Amino acid sequence: MLIVILDRDGVINFDSDNYIRAIDEWRPIPGSIEAIARLFKAGYSIYVATNQSGLARGFFSLEDLHMMHEKLESLVYAAGGEISGIYFCPHHPDDHCDCRKPNVGLLQRISQQSNDSLQGCPFVGDSLSDNRAAKAYGCKPVVVETGKGQKTLSQLDERIDVFQNLASFVDSLLNSTPTNTHK
Prior knowledge:
Layout: E1 2-6, H1 32-41, E2 44-51, H2 62-78, E3 85-89, H3 105-114, E4 122-125, H4 128-137, E5 140-144, H5 149-155, E6 161-163, H6 166-174
Parallel strand pairs: 1-2, 1-4, 2-3, 4-5, 5-6
């Protein structure tokens, strides 16, 4: 099975240091919705793994978060694509849960749903926690320069695939021979 895992804020949609708190603040980065649809049309299953501590902080409600995710899924569907699953960590960083990236709980859940090991699957993120979760679970970490990507690149000391944005990553992936085929 061909799988791509995406972080949400900073990869699919614009991020904010004040958190994305409402559906009208959730705005896709140009080209990201179409990129997800192209992945789907090429036979990929797309999963989203996102930390959403704004829930624990009281910045938005679970209903607000679901509305943002429904907006994402509707836009992707209108572009001819589909997201296989959206997994989020609702916890505060001080809660020490197993699902908050860089921990791998979200990836374990994706692996269980997809019935796939996720070994070598691209995990596209913009943060150090995305990179660390990907490596810890055996995914292939990919950094985009959108969101917190530029800051993250300055903190990394290893070689990693870097792309301007999600659309440029998808262009590269679809124009090469996939190496992450799983059964």
